[in-house]
Amino acid sequence: MSEYAVQLKNITKTFGSVVANNRVDLNVRRGEILALLGENGSGKTTLMNMLSGIYRPDKGQIFINGTKMYIDSPEDAKKLGIGMIHQHFKLIEKFTAADNIWMGVEKEPFLLKTKFNYVDSLYPYDGLDGNSLRSQKLQRFKVKTRLCLSALNYKLVNFFRNAFLSPSRFEKVNKIARDFGFDLDSRKKVCDMAVSEKQTLEIVKVLYYGADILILDEPTAVLTTQEIQKLFSILRKMKEKGCAIIIITHKLNEVLEISDRVTVLRKGENVGTIDTKDANEQLLTELMVGEKVDLKIECEKTDFDETLLSIKGLTVLNNEGTNAIEDVSFDLKSGEILGVAGISGCGQKELCESIAGLLPVKSGEILYSGENIAGKRPLDIINMGISMSFIPEDRLGMGLAGSMSVADNMILKTYRNAKGKLPSPRLYPFVDRKNAKALANKVVEELEVSTPDVDKTPVRRLSGGNVQKVLLGREIKGDPRVIITAYPVRGLDINSSYCIYDILSREKQKGTGVLFVGEDLDVMLALCDRILVLCHGKVMGTVQHNQSTKEQLGLMMTGTPYSQIYGDGENVKEEVSNG
Ligand SMILES: Nc1ncnc2c1ncn2[C@@H]1O[C@H](COP(=O)(O)OP(=O)(O)O)[C@@H](O)[C@H]1O
Ligand SMILES: [Mg+2]
Q: Does residue 482 surpass a pLDDT of 70?
């Protein structure tokens, strides 16, 4: 048997004029974790999609366990023991964990194949085209009977499945979970799961059908530090059991921690594979970018001094009806970046959404140039010059329409007339596409978005960094006075991240006020003028960026108030009375 579980030889793949992969070689041994590294758009996902049967290479060969294989479909990949955990989960929200696992793995039980298929009953009135009253009545009777029978059948199937089939299958799911130390409730519905649980489910699903070659596409982008450690311990266990694992990540510290070897892609080409023990961050960055890089963020003071937003005693409820943020007060000035730091779920999201008018305010005021905007509609708030670009855990879930092109996504923001009114439906065909296309071209050019075109390729086909640039670019082009941005660099590679920081700094220089909800404390200390720290929805204090350390921010994030860390100095009085 070959030394390698996977060998890709000379793989080339193009999309129109974009060469996503160019003569790429890649090898993975059994019992090895290979990190696949590269900037956004360097072709990592495309390469892995060919291994998992989603795309077919234009040229090149794939060898699995030493044998040349043609992987024409995800089904083929599955049979070869290849499982891929995608960046965007592929789960059915309404189903339980177990149902998601069984779906497509096991043969349908006999009863499900009966003539009275449940799905048919969703379109029962298809046959109602008869003219006479009598034939209509007959049709209705037929449809009703069919509905009853299919509902009965569905109940029957479910009953038998739960009684006879499920226990053994539940046991199999539970056994996998136990063996690898997963925390998975197989009866829980996906829609009730946290992101990390969904990811666990994706991995168990892949293991259930016996995969021993596992591909994970940026699995850590949406996880907290603790969840990442848990994932890594699972990966180590799988490695011990002889699995071959390929992990895509941008985070160099993760590459150094978890992998045995690293393969680096640059602009679709393999520019080198090195043993992780011989690698360091500087070396990997240079391989990725292709030149010596100077990673520096500047925070220059501006001369603006106008208060743009003044939040006073703001309290907002979350979906469960408890306080998501409580009595929050702070000012955002023109020409500054105000960072918001906090552990995930401490109220950052609700803070942003309430300012943007997406969440109702329970009490308190949001003063924008002196006017209270609490309770106003989002559209009115946008028209006043407040712009929100929120990059949620699911990047395409909010902000952009994934199936539309860059130009059409520009229209989404501008298709209303100057008074914020919708054009009459009769005018829809005449929505201004020319300007949208020009705007799209401008964004693509200025922010160096890599896309084959602006008016055909759907945004969801672009790589993450490019999606984010489009989103931010569109917001900036509206010339907002306030930009609210949450996690704008989530999942981005180093260069794209610095590009985004640069965009925000440039906006600040123009006098825009930026509210920046971030995760990386080093970055926040370098980029923001001041940092507001939240814990359980309350303000722990606001610090000047050059008078604080990561450790101090960490303490405040976990509930130590400002005054306990900094004493009662001058700075404290000013900031605490503010916030
Ligand atoms: N289905 C597609 N249609 C058009 N272009 C695509 C498609 N998939 C990927 N691309 C392009 O191929 C390049 C590589 O993308 P991708 O493999 O997603 O990069 P990565 O995963 O390294 O960020 C990008 O320029 C991207 O826009
Ligand atoms: Mg990708």
A: yes
